[in-house]
Amino acid sequence: MGRSSKDKRDIYYRLAKEEGWRARSAFKLLQLDHEFNLFTGVNRAVDLCAAPGSWSQVLSRKLRARGEKGEKGDGGEEVKIVAVDLQAMAPLPGVTQIQGDITKVSTAQEIIRHFEGQPADLVVCDGAPDVTGLHDVDEYIQAQLLLAALNITTHVLKPGGTFVAKIFRGKDVTLLYSQLKIFFSGVTCAKPRSSRNSSIEAFVVCQNYSPPDGYVPNMSNPLLDHSYDVDFNQLEGPNRVIVPFLACGDLSAFDSDRTYPLQLDDGKQYQYTPPTQPPICPPYQQACHLRKNNLLSREDAPSACPSQSPHEPEPPAEST
């Protein structure tokens, strides 16, 4: 079947390449916005763990398309978008990139500098660890990443702002929910139609940022220390808290777990469309190079980054 196999299996992967998105995950943010109107009134947005940049693309296209010549946001303010990641990312129009660590207060300060001292209206994070397949481990690491994103968000988000982040649904979702509710009056766990049913991922949509009185953001203290309410996850019966869950999209939308035909015209041959923008020298690139050239057993194998074409290999980011 060759390179057409993934295009046949995954309609969103195919549509992302046809519409110029860097990854299929762009549709997740688009569907969340359709359900929650995330971009209404947003002039300053932050994309955490942004590489390869599909969510930054969505922010750039949606926010900069409003107003006169696509340069002014609501209220006549200039739209400003900041993307943060440890990895380098190919440039995007209207997006300022920071190659930094979201657990450092200096990164938060740099974000505010780009906003000329103003806080953000919206913070989004589609970051996820390299999964191990051990669900307990993956859920814990993802929870730590989510709370690191929340921690920096408390430094840069304005009161009343919105925070959206990926979460792995598991036994500690209610604990995470209780901690998010400390900072946001509205928290919903949402599953976009483009997110595979077989995946444990979902997204927390946190609206109306309202931290406790006297709360001072502090990067030194981890949020997930199980000290807010140690019995929260053990509540039973009428005292049990049910996390609000919403499936975004309707039955007329594409099913991310279904295989769709390529819908070629009569007599037309399949033509492969390469990814819009592979990641720039990602950490897994050397491993792919070594495997492709049967060098995994060699300790003196050369690094792949300096010489390898940016179009090899096809990035796993497209399958997220």
UniProtKB/TrEMBL annotation:
One of its GO terms (molecular function) is tRNA (guanosine(34)-2'-O)-methyltransferase activity. The active site is at K166. It is an enzyme of class 2 (transferase). It is found in: Cytoplasm; Nucleus. Keywords: Cytoplasm, Methyltransferase, S-adenosyl-L-methionine, Transferase, tRNA processing. One of its GO terms (biological process) is cytoplasmic translation. One of its GO terms (cellular component) is cytoplasm. Its EC number is 2.1.1.205. Residues 21-209 form the Ribosomal RNA methyltransferase FtsJ domain. Belongs to the class I-like SAM-binding methyltransferase superfamily. RNA methyltransferase RlmE family. TRM7 subfamily. Methylates the 2'-O-ribose of nucleotides at positions 32 and 34 of the tRNA anticodon loop of substrate tRNAs. This is Putative tRNA (cytidine(32)/guanosine(34)-2'-O)-methyltransferase. It comes from Lates calcarifer. The lineage of its organism: Eukaryota, Metazoa, Chordata, Craniata, Vertebrata. The gene is FTSJ1.
